Amino acid sequence: DLSEVPSDGILGEREVLAYLAAKGIADKGSDRPGDLPAGATRVLVIGAGLGAMQVVDILLSDPSVEVAGCVDDDPALRDVRLFGVPVLGSVADLGRLWNERRFEKAIVSVSHDVAIRRRLFEACKALGIPMANAIDPTSRIQRGAVLGEGNVLCAHCHVGVAAQLGDNNFLSAYNNVEHHNR
Q1: Which of 57, 67, 142, 155 could cross-link with 161 by S-S, CB 3.0 to 4.6 Å?
Q2: What pTM was estimated for this model as a whole?
Q3: Which are the contacts of 36, defined by CB distance < 8 A and separation ≥ 6?
């Protein structure tokens, strides 16, 4: 009964989970491997800012993906949830979360700084972390197109016939990589 959950007027997941913990009721969240749908891949999002909102939104529409969480170095983003997805710590926690098997793949959500995006991608590769692609369901990838890993394709992107898109790209909405381009 939600009327029994104490709150300051806004009732969110945090208040419900605290209430359940106080009552001794275990959290039945989906961040444990046993709770994953068959065949789902847990993906960690690196970054929790504006680009991460786009990436999380895309990943949540993919039934083969379970978003494991986000990491971000901004202390103001601790205890934040993006569409229900928690920020699990900082980028420094990446290796620990990988060693704890909290995710199977990662993706960099930073879109505003290519150098930071590259550094984070390379840090994942150095740890042996496979990279996921996040492809909005409205995007069109035509026959013979080849995509690398760690790419983000936002709404209505187009990758033409036999085009090649390398690794770690962030294509905002309505981008077009026409046929046979690299």
Answers
A1: 142
A2: 0.79
A3: 30, 42, 66
